[in-house]
Design goal:
By secondary structure, the protein is of the alpha+beta class. It contains eight helices and 14 strands. The chain folds into two domains: 4-195, 2-Layer Sandwich (Ribosomal Protein S5, domain 2); 203-350, GHMP kinase, C-terminal domain (Alpha-Beta Plaits, 2-Layer Sandwich), CATH 3.30.70. Strands 1, 4, 5, 6, 7, 8, 9 and 14 form an eight-stranded mixed beta sheet that branches. A hairpin with a 5-residue loop joins strand 11 (308-311) and strand 12 (317-321). The two termini are 36 Å apart. The structure holds (3R)-3-hydroxy-3-methyl-5-(phosphonooxy)pentanoic acid.
Length: 360
């Protein structure tokens, strides 16, 4: 599948060398993307909060070379990472048609995360988005008249080909990816800003990430998405995602936090139910994940505060709550939930506005 919109005219002249740098955020899905078709096309639409604190910073230096093929070195926190090479090599292969300069240069990719590498937080969304943005910055140096809108759109398109959810990590603060009949401009190819009214209740929404299990992911997302092929409940799940998106359109407008909580927690548990009922099957929650969920439910029933949880494909818990209730809920997290985290470790985050270029 080739999308001509993202193929520009041949460059008049290549630069000898140069550099690009970007800082890009992670994101947390409210309606989850789980299951994909060929060419990184999502099986259902998703919507996410862009985060503010959990970010990846990437610097990309490039220098003309004469050899064939791709050539790059990748460093994480200053350490050469051979393990990252196959994923980046595959990414370059997928996007070369859109960025023909890729085989003309040797690249040095230097990357670092604001969250600890071993935290169990997926760095692929922020990492792939930062890399895609750096590549777009080079494209802009070769083609100075591309618009900001095209820049972001193509960056999202490229990031998706690195890691699906990365296409939601270019802008903020609420991003939709995947075609939905009632969301104008929504697309399977790129993440777009949620286009409708959003109630004050969702401004500066908080996400405190509880690090329950900092280990390697038990199931890679590639394996996970593939489990949705031939899954007995796949079709119903994809339909449910569409109707949950419809429900969220009304909720974002009205600010109904109880309805929001019901959708978000159901989405998280459905994601895990899909894994628990696939072949092979997995349980990615840990005993502490369930302890935390139960404590959140008890606290919510006792206080009436609007705290809820969501989960990625792992054991860590994202605790979501409105800014107006932050003081009481942060206190609850510190005194009641932190004991269930590895070494008491959690990260306080909130909605963010998207990626930023860095001057170098
Ligand atoms: O972008 P991927 O292929 O790593 O998939 C991410 C899937 C979830 O994080 C579980 C859900 C989502 O929509 O982000």
């Amino acid at each position: 599948m080739i999308v001509n919109e993202f193929i520009l005219k041949p460059y008049k002249q290549l630069l000898e060398n140069g550099a690009a740098a970007y800082i890009a955020p992670s994101n947390i899905a409210l309606v989850k993307y789980w299951g994909k078709k060929a060419h990184q096309i999502p099986a259902n639409p998703s919507v996410s909060f862009t985060l503010d604190h959990c970010k990846t910073t990437t610097t990309l230096k490039f220098e003309k070379k004469t050899s064939e093929g791709f050539s790059f070195d990748v460093f994480l926190e200053g350490v050469l990472e051979e393990d990252f090479k196959p994923k980046i090599e595959q990414f370059f292969k997928r996007i070369e048609i859109y960025l023909p300069f890729l085989s003309a240069y040797h690249f040095v990719i230097e990357t670092s995360n604001t969250f600890p590498h071993s935290s169990g937080i997926a760095s692929s969304a922020s990492g792939m988005s930062a890399l895609a943005l750096c590549l777009m910055q080079i494209e802009q140096q070769l083609n100075p008249n591309i618009s900001k809108e095209f820049f972001n759109k193509k960056a999202s398109f490229l990031a998706r080909l690195g890691s699906g959810s990365a296409c939601r990590s270019i802008e903020g603060d609420l991003i939709v990816w995947g075609t939905h009949a009632n969301i104008e401009g929504s697309s399977d190819l790129v993440g777009v800003k949620y286009p409708y009214e959003v109630h004050q209740n969702f401004k500066n929404y908080r996400d405190t990430i509880l690090l329950v299990d900092k280990g390697e992911k038990q199931v890679s997302s590639t394996v996970g998405h593939n489990l949705m092929h031939n899954h007995p409940f796949a079709e119903q799940r994809f339909q449910q995602a569409h109707s949950n998106m419809d429900a969220l359109i009304l909720i974002f407008k009205s600010g109904d936090l109880d309805a929001f909580i019901s959708i978000v927690e159901r989405e998280a548990l459905t994601l895990h139910s899909m894994m628990m009922s696939s072949d092979p099957y997995f349980i990615l929650m840990k005993p502490n994940t369930l302890e935390i969920i139960n404590k959140i439910w008890t606290f919510r029933a006792q206080t009436g505060l609007h705290v809820c949880f969501t989960l990625d494909a792992g054991a860590n818990v994202h605790v979501l709550f409105p800014q107006s209730e932050a003081i009481e809920i942060q206190e609850f997290i510190k005194t009641e939930l932190a004991v269930h985290c590895q070494n008491g470790h959690f990260i306080e985050d909130k909605l963010g506005l998207g990626a930023q270029p860095i001057k170098i």
